[in-house]
Amino acid sequence: MNKNELRVKYKKRRESLTEEQIENLSLEIANRTLTLPIWHKTNFHLFLSIQNKKEIDTEFLLQILAGKDKNVILSKSDFANGTMQHYLLTDNTRLKVNAYGIPEPVDGILIQESQIEVVFIPLLAYDQNGNRIGYGKGFYDRFLALCPPETIKIGLSFFEPEPLIEDIFDNDIPLDYCVTPDKIFSFTP
C-alpha cells in the first residue's frame, strides 16, 4: 500500500479504539520500552499526544523517564517553515495546546538536535523495514536529519507493521525500533 492508503487505513483503525483501550495499550507500550537498550542514555525527545487523533498516551512513558531521572525534551512546531524547536522539560515549563491539538512548550531552555540521544516518534503506520509514515508534513524527517546518526529512533504504535510501504522517499528516515503493546520490532542490523 502507498502512504495515502495507509494513512486512511490507520486513522480508521485508531478511531475504532475506545479511551480505555488507548489507556491500557499505552501503558503496555510504555512498560515494554523498559526492555530497550536505551536506558544508559540521558537526553530523550518525547512527543505529547494529540488526544483528538487517538494517539498513544505518552504520559506513562513520561513518568518512566522522570522516574529514571532522564532529561525530557519536547518540541514546538513552526508550521510556517516546517521546523521544530526543542525545549528541556522542567518544573517551570508551561505547555499550551496549539491550533492542531499538539501540546507544546511555550518557551524554556533550548536544546540542540546534536544533544538528543533517543527520539520517541509518533506515527500512523510503519513497515517491516522500519519505514514510517506520519501525517505527511515531514516535521520528523527534517528534525531527525539534524540529529546525530547514532540517535536512536523509536516508533510507538498500537499495531503490527505493514509488509511494505510502497512510496518511500530518499529523505524518509527509518526507525531503529518500534514498540507495540505485544512486541518490540528491531530494524537495526
From TrEMBL:
Reactions mediated catalytically: (6S)-5-formyl-5,6,7,8-tetrahydrofolate + ATP = (6R)-5,10-methenyltetrahydrofolate + ADP + phosphate
Positions of substrate binding: 50, 55
GO terms (BP aspect): folic acid-containing compound biosynthetic process; tetrahydrofolate interconversion
EC numbers: 6.3.3.2
TM segment ranges: none
Coiled-coil annotated spans: none
Keyword Manganese: no
Cofactor(s) it depends on: Mg(2+)
UniProtKB keywords: ATP-binding, Ligase, Magnesium, Metal-binding, Nucleotide-binding
Superkingdom of this protein's organism: Bacteria
Binding site for ATP: 3-7, 132-140
GO molecular function: 5-formyltetrahydrofolate cyclo-ligase activity; ATP binding; metal ion binding
Sequence similarity: Belongs to the 5-formyltetrahydrofolate cyclo-ligase family.
NCBIfam families from the UniProt entry: MTHFS_bact
Protein name: 5-formyltetrahydrofolate cyclo-ligase
